[in-house]
Amino acid sequence: MHIAIIGSGYVGLVSGACLSEFGHDVVCIDSDKGKIADLNAGRIPIFEPGLDEVVATNARAGRLSFTGDLAAAVSQADAVFIAVGTPSRRGVGNADLSFVFGAAEEIARALNGYTVVVTKSTVPVGTGRKVEEIIRKLRPDARFDVASNPEFLREGSAIEDFRRPDRIVVGAESEQARNVMKEVYRPLFLNETPIVFTSRETSELIKYAANAFLATKITFINEMADLCEKVGADVQDVARGIGLDGRIGGKFLHAGPGFGGSCFPKDTLALLKTSQQAGAPVRIVETVMNVNESRKLAMAEKIADAFGDLKGRTVAVLGLTFKPNTDDMRDAPSLVIIPRLREKGARIRAYDPEGAAEARTLLDIETCKDAYEAIAGADGVVILTEWNEFRALDLARVKSLLTRPLMVDLRNIYRPAAMAEAGFTYVSVGRKTVG
Q1: Which residues contact 177 (CB under 8 A, 6 or more apart)?
Q2: What DSSP character marks residue 276?
Q3: Long-range contacts: 139-144, Cβ < 8 Å, 24+?
Q4: Would you name the residues annotated as active-site residues?
Q5: Sheet holding 381-383, edge to edge
Q6: Consecutive 10-residue runs of the chain (435 residues): their mean pLDDT?
Q7: pTM check: above 0.90
């Protein structure tokens, strides 16, 4: 099949690379000439493990290419995926669909023969219908269908998620469109990956509902962590105890400083706005959002309490991105926690394996080449992101480099007993402080 993907950001590039790996001829389109030049030169604009190899392999094979010429790519396509950004509108929270609707207008002018136009971007309920109206108005003669196909990619494991998804969700109104989408995902269909066909509105809502539910699980275990600290329980044991129940499951039950990233904050807010407009309040989601925002501030206070008076103290911060294996700083807890620590007089020295460059544009901090450089001479160390390299620090070396052996671990990657044995004052989340 010939597939065109409009938008070569995170979702578009990963989807395009993986679809080309399925054997399709894929053209990724972007209006950013610099990005297209970089991609054609083999330079990947985002960090995602394994993506560079998949892109390079399929580009060499001639199945994957990059262009700024939307009209030419769309005119040859059997399916056109819209994978542009849908950021929250500043001050109101609704998803900004201007890029989606702009893409629809350009697609309309370029359509040639029957084509399925697929919204891959995360969009509010009813967007697919509006996309169809835009195209139909501009090209009443065109033969096309509009489908919804939300992505469920986790940053840091997106390639594996695309290759072996839990399910494929497709919202389509015609049998012809459903058949095209079956062909798009034929390798997964043959592997018996569940493909859920629904209406477009249902498909659009599934994406928001899934992210809101996962955000709720994170927020729930964070509140349980607070309770554990008050009553002397261990949140990791609580999480395991409830997660072994098949009705609950153990994923997304890791206590920490609150959720961030490109999806959960934006999508919970968009779902809330959709519910308000529809007159069907989602009070749980609203509470999740409020608790998550206060969570980040509470973690800053937790750090301050551990250090005592922060004025003039140096805090080594390990991890700046919202999660490991990505360079994404969007809505990362560090963007709230670090400024609050600085307000209290702390000097911040930080290290992140991939996010340091972006963090320097967003935060007034000193970044270091590795964890030990950040720790050297600091009054304590704080773990904000659970990169694997932080799980096996040389604790004796860390202790020797610090002015005092204090660690605040907001990701619970160490065992309290081991930290006490190593001579640390160890503060974690939802567990007893030791040392």
Answers
A1: 116, 145, 147
A2: H
A3: 139/108, 139/109, 139/111, 142/108, 142/111, 142/115, 143/111, 143/113, 143/114, 143/115, 144/111, 144/114, 144/115, 144/116, 144/117
A4: 263
A5: 366-367, 347-351, 314-318, 381-383, 406-409, 425-427
A6: 96 98 97 96 94 97 97 97 87 83 98 97 95 98 98 95 96 97 94 95 97 98 98 98 97 97 92 94 97 97 96 97 96 97 97 96 95 98 98 97 98 97 98 95
A7: yes
